[in-house]
Amino acid sequence: MKINDWVDCHIQAYRYSGGVTRILIPDNLKVGIIQNKKYEDSILNKSYQEMAD
């Protein structure tokens, strides 16, 4: 899956439900998460981070 598809899936899901979540907890998909750190915040793909913000 490409990052554009990943972000678009989130946007379409939010449109379908009529809103957004207060907290976004992604899985560990490589396209969205660049580096997962156990005791620190994960490093997100820039496009994914912007969509979440």
Give the structure's gist in a few sentences.
The chain is built from two helices and two strands, in the order H-E-E-H. It is mostly helical.
List the defining traits of the structure above:
single chain; 53 residues; mainly alpha; globular
Descriptive report:
The protein has helices at 3-17, 46-52; strands spanning 33-35, 43-44. The chain is mainly alpha-helical and 53 residues long. It has one domain (3-52). The protein is globular. The protein starts with a helix and ends with a helix. The model has no long low-confidence stretch (mean pLDDT 83).
Estimate the global geometry from the Cα principal axes: globular
- How would you write the strand order of the largest sheet? 1-2
Share of β-strand residues: 5-15%
Q: Tally the helices: what do you get?
A: 2
Radius of gyration from the CA trace? 11 Å
Reading the helices and strands in chain order gives HEEH
Q: Give the proportion of residues in helices.
A: 40-55%
Chain-averaged pLDDT: 83
Question: Kindly, what is the distance between the CA atoms of the first and last residues, rounded to a whole number of angstroms?
Answer: 21 Å
What summary fits the major beta sheet?
2 strands, antiparallel
What is the strand tally?
2
Structural class: mainly alpha
Number of domains: 1
> Could you name the ranges where pLDDT drops below 50 across 5 or more consecutive residues?
none
